[in-house]
């Protein structure tokens, strides 16, 4: 067909579109696929006060979608209005749009569905002696007829897009469409635990949950009870601190992270939403606990005053706009982060199936399953003192405590600017192991947290790569590089927070790095951040820069300034570092920590092993390195007993 020229179109007269075409255009926004029909009809059922809802599908919803509920029903004389465009009982004035408390409110769903499908609507109210039914197809609506049926409503949608074949051919296979429909219904089932849901696909029942469940019971019933040990509760008390938001949720341990964002389920006032602000808060809470490119598993249920959020910003009602976006972001971030910090995130060997998948991050440094990539085994003297020098660097000249050597706990309190703490442990040399608990008593009895190592002398280095110790629950195997990298990262971050900059050393002979024009522009953007980190970089030509100064601790670790800056600029170009952002700061600090940390293949003295295990309990998020790789796994006594046939 020849396309219409612009001049030809402009000469045509303006005319009013016929109602069917208007509704089909609206359907293009409202009805994307069978799952859209399921979502719109379920919204109406929930608004009608249903306590039990049944969803029936055939051929992925393309041939049949039937939603049956026991809600209030529709009077017989209002059935034609229910199928009319922009007719609704939920919004009557402009002011109502500022406080939308219902799930459906536009009054266009049934009219749009009717324009592209064959629809039958049967309903009965408690005051009626019998049900009534109306049928519609395209722009043809039949008269209301008496019918048999219980109180409630049953909407049957057949042959979706039968009169718009161009739309129908873009649908996916029936199993794919069925999956989208089940997801849409399951999401609403999670957010409405008081309502019973039954989902039947081609005669097979795929989900059935009873009414009046608790939010936790419902979430586990839909997601799978096998996930319960891996889920943590997160909450914001109702309108706590005048934040205007209440939240309850289940957040997965880092091992439950997925390759897509499908497992991030967020609900606002019972409505499933996709909001970039909340997704960012959730992912930010997991920063450093999961690998980049993976997404946490979480179910978050938020409650807010309807007047504080605008849900009328998307035809499918999946996006919202908050009146106070930063307040909601900080409340969710704090709640999820607190839940993760309260938990022992050390993965259990039996539950996670370690070794089934690789972990990204420090390629060539960890030797994750590839011994040939490890660094050559070095004499003990080559690695000796690394942790001691680390302690010395980060405990000298602490603000307000000049020349005083501090324990790591006291150091963190000082760097957090909370002032002196008279209860701080006595200064301790890095080479002196902590005193063992008295005979016959466990560290837990002496006040040590669950998961803390038992007597510190029980530490073993395996193949100069892994460190083995024990805790109250069993055997703990630690990746020495990953753990030391996390320690370095946390203390670099704390040092920046306390002093604003890292100590640097001026180079007698600057290191010259050849760069492209794009990377030269990146240098100019990143110079303020690099200056904070002790890296002074100056352009010295159209295609080169000179590294004038470099962080002292990286010099001590033998890191080559030119190679470090070249690698950093390469990553900045590939990953699109945003100057001044917290993400960029963390990326560069992560690089520094990785370069300076103990490597796989470095032999460590017994004192260093003891100190490294002690540091595991002294820093935040020690269960994972900054890349998101686990630093340790636990082989529980129960699992050992099982494998040795004791249970």
How would you describe this protein?
- With 647 residues, the protein is an alpha+beta fold.
- Among the domains are: 19-209, Histidine kinase-like ATPase, C-terminal domain (Heat Shock Protein 90, 2-Layer Sandwich); 215-343, Ribosomal Protein S5, domain 2 (2-Layer Sandwich), CATH 3.30.230.10.
- It contains 21 helices and 23 strands.
- Helix 3 (34-47) packs parallel to helix 7 (174-191), helix 7 (174-191) runs antiparallel to helix 8 (215-223) and helix 9 packs parallel to helix 10 (325-342).
- The longest helix has 20 residues, at 480-499.
- Mean pLDDT is 79; it is low at 353-456.
Summarize the structure.
By secondary structure, the chain is of the alpha+beta class. Among the domains are: 19-209, Heat Shock Protein 90 (2-Layer Sandwich); 215-343, Ribosomal Protein S5, domain 2.
């Amino acid at each position: 067909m020849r396309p219409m020229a612009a001049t030809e179109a402009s000469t045509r007269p303006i005319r009013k579109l016929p109602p069917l075409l208007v509704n089909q255009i609206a359907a293009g926004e409202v009805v994307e696929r069978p799952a859209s029909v399921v979502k719109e009809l379920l919204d109406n059922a929930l608004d009608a006060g249903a306590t039990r809802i049944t969803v029936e599908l055939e051929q992925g919803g393309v041939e049949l979608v039937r939603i049956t509920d026991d809600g209030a029903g529709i009077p017989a004389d209002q059935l034609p209005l229910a199928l009319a465009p922009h007719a609704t009982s939920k919004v009557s004035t402009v002011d109502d749009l500022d406080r939308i408390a219902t799930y459906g409110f536009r009054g266009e769903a049934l009219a749009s569905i009717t324009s592209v499908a064959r629809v039958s609507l049967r309903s009965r109210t408690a005051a009626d002696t019998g049900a009534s039914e109306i049928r519609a197809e395209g722009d043809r609506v039949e008269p209301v007829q008496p019918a048999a049926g219980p109180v409630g409503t049953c909407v049957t949608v057949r042959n979706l897009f039968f009169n718009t074949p161009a739309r129908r051919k873009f649908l996916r296979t029936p199993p794919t469409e069925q999956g989208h429909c089940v997801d849409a219904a399951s999401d609403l089932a999670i957010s409405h635990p008081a309502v019973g849901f039954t989902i039947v696909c081609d005669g097979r029942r795929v989900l059935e949950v009873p009414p009046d469940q608790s939010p936790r019971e419902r979430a586990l019933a839909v997601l799978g009870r096998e996930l319960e040990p891996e889920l943590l509760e997160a909450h914001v008390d109702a309108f706590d601190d005048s934040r205007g938001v209440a939240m309850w949720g289940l957040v997965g341990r880092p091992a439950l992270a997925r390759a897509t964002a499908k497992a991030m389920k967020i609900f606002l006032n019972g409505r499933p939403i996709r909001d970039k602000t909340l997704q960012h808060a959730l992912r930010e809470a997991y920063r450093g606990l999961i690998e980049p490119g993976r997404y946490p598993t979480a179910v978050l249920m938020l409650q807010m005053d309807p007047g504080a959020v605008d849900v009328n910003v998307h035809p499918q009602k999946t996006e919202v706009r908050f009146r106070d976006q930063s307040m909601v972001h900080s409340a969710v971030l704090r709640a999820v982060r607190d839940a993760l910090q309260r938990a022992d995130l050390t993965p259990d060997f039996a539950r996670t199936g370690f070794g089934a998948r690789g972990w990204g991050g420090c390629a060539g440094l960890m030797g994750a399953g590839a011994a040939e990539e490890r660094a050559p085994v070095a004499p003990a003297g080559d690695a000796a003192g690394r942790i001691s020098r680390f302690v010395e660097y980060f405990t000298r000249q602490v603000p307000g405590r000049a020349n005083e050597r501090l324990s790591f706990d006291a150091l963190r309190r000082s760097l957090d600017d909370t002032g002196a703490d008279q209860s701080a442990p006595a200064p301790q040399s890095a080479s002196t192991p902590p005193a063992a608990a008295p005979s016959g008593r466990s560290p837990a009895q002496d006040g040590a947290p669950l998961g803390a190592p038992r007597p510190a002398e029980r530490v073993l280095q395996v193949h100069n790569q892994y460190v083995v110790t024990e805790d109250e629950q069993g055997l703990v195997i630690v990746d020495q590089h990953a753990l030391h990298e996390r320690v370095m990262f946390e203390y670099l971050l704390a040092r920046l927070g306390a002093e604003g900059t890292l100590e640097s050393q001026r180079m007698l002979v600057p290191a010259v790095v050849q760069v492209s024009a794009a990377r030269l522009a990146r240098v100019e953007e990143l110079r303020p951040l690099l200056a904070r980190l002790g890296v002074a970089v100056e352009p010295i030509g159209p295609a080169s820069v000179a590294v004038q100064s470099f962080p002292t601790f990286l010099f001590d670790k033998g890191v080559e300034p030119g190679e470090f800056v070249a690698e950093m600029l390469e990553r900045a170009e590939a990953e699109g570092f945003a100057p001044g952002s917290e993400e960029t700061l963390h990326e560069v600090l992560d690089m520094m920590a990785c370069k300076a940390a103990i490597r796989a293949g470095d032999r460590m003295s017994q004192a260093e092993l003891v100190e490294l295990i002690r540091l595991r309990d002294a820093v935040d998020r020690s269960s994972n390195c900054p890349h998101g790789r686990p630093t340790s796994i636990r082989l529980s006594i129960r699992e050992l007993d099982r494998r040795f046939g004791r249970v």
